[in-house]
């Protein structure tokens, strides 16, 4: 599908940028005129992906997190969150609800949240090469006033 | 004059962090009112129009309260 | 000076992205806890630079606009707005207040606004190679309540 607008962002994997990444994605998505709830869902999903890149992908190091966003003509947005961190050994297992490698610190619900708050979720990863999470979300068409 | 202006700025200007929360609060109230009246949620553009601010600023304001629910609860419950 | 945080953004030169660019820069600058006035000044300056890249740099074409932001430890922000468009033949002349090549459409005050709303302004350009506008702004330190 033809892209109507796009943006590419990158920043160091420090936690101060979690909120920033969320703000950027919503400032971009707002062009599609979503409702607050739709935008909130999207932000929550993006947060989870960015947090994972920071805390799992780059663990005890600082690396670069990449975000690529595209708007598609059917009122949907595609978001890629990429890191060049440690990668995931078993993607299926990682995506299972409650599965976490972070012990008691994390709930293991990140992927479950991404899945339920977006319409499409794809995870690609290579051990030692990094992880790319691709999410898509379509916003409801606006109800016309007096229409 | 520059110094006076700086003084005024330092002492009287509202910090963004503080005003954002006020804006977010207004946004949540406006959303509530709109939903009651129209039986559907406002879109972000509609919300920005009601509040008469830039939609980028609405986004930023909502960002200042990571989870809107946490703002909502102490006020309405 | 050591950078404490940074971000790099790019997007196509379409006018829908003027507001987006402004929102991104302010979402990033907000980490320095500026006042509303300071942030407003910064956003206005960024708007002018981005608009110039879109309407002058890429004129009748669509190109990529690049924004690089750095936070410095003295509570200041450095913002670069870059295009690979047509470039400016005479930078000094272009920066003169009221000078414009756009006839009646524009006021010729873009650079004047950037200069007065930031603490430092540098313009680099090469004919056919593009233009880079670098701005720096220091925010007032936070005033302690009861302090
Ligand atoms: N970007 C990533 N890089 C490396 N490993 C990851 C990444 N994202 C997720 N993982 C792995 O998948 C697991 C599950 O992720 P998630 O569902 O978000 O739960 P949590 O983050 O709470 O552990 C993580 O514990 C981690 O082992
Ligand atoms: N990014 C750019 N690429 C090419 N030319 C530029 C660029 N920015 C500014 N200029 C030139 O400098 C002139 C003055 O810019 P400015 O002060 O913003 O006034 P205005 O945009 O109203 O013309 C413009 O008319 C244009 O000729
Ligand atoms: Mg997680
Ligand atoms: Mg201009």
UniProtKB/TrEMBL annotation, chains A, C:
Catalytic activity entry: L-seryl-[protein] + ATP = O-phospho-L-seryl-[protein] + ADP + H(+); L-threonyl-[protein] + ATP = O-phospho-L-threonyl-[protein] + ADP + H(+)
Gene3D superfamilies: Histidine kinase-like ATPase, C-terminal domain
EC number, as in UniProt: 2.7.11.1
NCBIfam families in the record: spIIAB
Name recorded for this polypeptide: Anti-sigma F factor
BP terms from Gene Ontology: asexual sporulation; negative regulation of sporulation resulting in formation of a cellular spore; sporulation resulting in formation of a cellular spore
Keyword set includes Nucleus: no
Domain Histidine kinase/HSP90-like ATPase: 37-141
SMART domains registered for this protein in UniProt: HATPase_c
Superkingdom as given in the UniProt entry: Bacteria
SUPFAM superfamilies linked: ATPase domain of HSP90 chaperone/DNA topoisomerase II/histidine kinase
Function: Binds to sigma F and blocks its ability to form an RNA polymerase holoenzyme (E-sigma F). Phosphorylates SpoIIAA on a serine residue. This phosphorylation may enable SpoIIAA to act as an anti-anti-sigma factor that counteracts SpoIIAB and thus releases sigma F from inhibition.
Protein family per UniProt: Belongs to the anti-sigma-factor family.
UniProt cross-references to HAMAP family, sorted A to Z: Anti_sigma_F
Transmembrane portions of the chain: none
Keywords: ATP-binding, Kinase, Nucleotide-binding, Serine/threonine-protein kinase, Sporulation, Transferase
Organism: Caproicibacterium amylolyticum
Alphabetized GO MF terms: ATP binding; protein serine/threonine kinase activity; sigma factor antagonist activity
PANTHER family: ANTI-SIGMA-F FACTOR RSBW, ANTI-SIGMA-F FACTOR RSBW-RELATED
A Pfam family hit: HATPase_c_2
